[in-house]
Amino acid sequence: MNYLPTPEVRFIAEFDVSFLKFRYFCVTRAIQGKSTGMNTPADPSDITILVVDDEEDVVEMVSHFLEEEKYKVNKAYNGEEALAKATSDTNVILLDIMLPKLDGIEVCKQLRSRIATETIPIIFLTAKTEERDQIKALMAGGDNYLMKPVSSGVILAHVRTALRLSGIRERKFIEISGLKIYEDEHRATIANRDIGLTETEFSLLLYLVRHPLKAFSRKQLLETIWEDAMMVTERTVDAHIKNLREKLGDFAQHIQTVRGVGYRFSHEAEEAG
To answer: Within the chain, which residue ranges are assigned CATH 1.10.10.10?
Structure first.
């Protein structure tokens, strides 16, 4: 006797097969991300995020906090516009499901069918809470599924995770006026020009910047920055501060001499006098 599977059984079987395909897709994308040489630092301003939602206030709100993090943001308000604006330069897509002209599930499928967009991380951001909707979205090629309402912090965390898994590592830097200090890369730039600091000069600058307005004696700086502090004199600090100031140019006014103590960093430039 032949038994026909019930709709529930068919759904479970289809889900199992689709889930295996989905896992294969994720592993393949991870390998592609590592092999493309993309695992290099990138400034947030070099990262483009496409926000897709038919509600303008949602698009504006999400775009606002992404732009505050210095990301570039493109916006789309329907499915067709999303397909037109998603390009190989897009790094992450935040996608609603209930869209006019073309729903988010279909948009996701079409993006996955295009060579230029098949590996872009897609995070569904939707008010649909049913389990079937979540499964459909993930099986269509979505990387994650967030249900509204959701905080900006959670969205940002998922965006950064998606970037990391796709092989993009955000540069960590401290920015003060035109000076950028890249902690992981041990270098600093002024107006996007590398100023060529030595390892010791970089450590000295970073330490002072991390403790604004706090005055450090030469002895304190020696013991903190120099591993062989016992082998060098306090005048070594003066020599490195002099070299550092020369490389900083006009920005050198922020590294101030504290008479009778040593040196400090101030966000306010020292007045000539």
So the answer is: 173-265
